Amino acid sequence: MDGPPEDEPVELPIDGTLDLHTFRPAEVKDLVPEWLAACQERGLTQVRIVHGKGTGALRRTVEAILARSPRVRAFRPADEAGGGWGATLVDLARARERQ
Predict the structure, then answer these.
(1) What domain of life is recorded for the organism (predicted)?
(2) Domains of the chain
(3) Residue 95 and residue 99: Cα distance in Å, rounded?
(4) Neighbours of 92 (CB within 10 A)
(5) Is the pLDDT confidence value at 36 over 60?
(6) Which among 45, 40, 8 has a CA at the least distance from the CA of 27?
(7) Which of 34, 19, 27, 28 has the alpha carbon at shortest distance from 69?
(8) Would you give the DSSP letter of residue 94?
C-alpha cells in the first residue's frame, strides 16, 4: 500500500483550492476550518472548495461549516468553468476584519 498511513497528517498545499475528493467525510469537519485558517494567514481572500456534485451531502456539510465560520464573508457556487455546483467559492475576511 502506497502513501502515508491513515493516522499520519497529510500536508496540503495552501494555493487557494481544496479538493475534498481524497478525504473521508468524517475528516471534512476539522479539515475545512483548519485549511481556511491557513489560507487566511497566507493573505488569500478568495478560495475554492471542490466537493463534487454527487448527492450534495458533502456540499451541504461544507456550506454548514462556512456559514458558521467567522473567517468567511460570503460563499456561493462556482461558475461552470470553476466546477459549477461541484465547487464552492469562498470570500475570506482579512485577518484584521475578524478581530
Answers:
(1) Bacteria
(2) 17-86 (3.30.1370.110)
(3) 7
(4) 23
(5) yes
(6) 8
(7) 34
(8) P
Per the listing, cell 450534495 goes with 56
**Cell numbers linked to 58:** 458533502
The per-residue pLDDT for 1 is 45
**Cβ neighbours around 95 below 10 Å, total:** 13
pLDDT at site 11: 75
| Number of residues written out for the chain | 99
What Rg value do the Cα atoms of the chain yield, rounded? 13
pLDDT in tens, 58-99: 999 999 999 999 999 999 999 999 999 999 999 999 876 555
Q: What is the grid cell recorded at 75?
A: 460563499
| Residue 46 bridge partners (DSSP) | 91
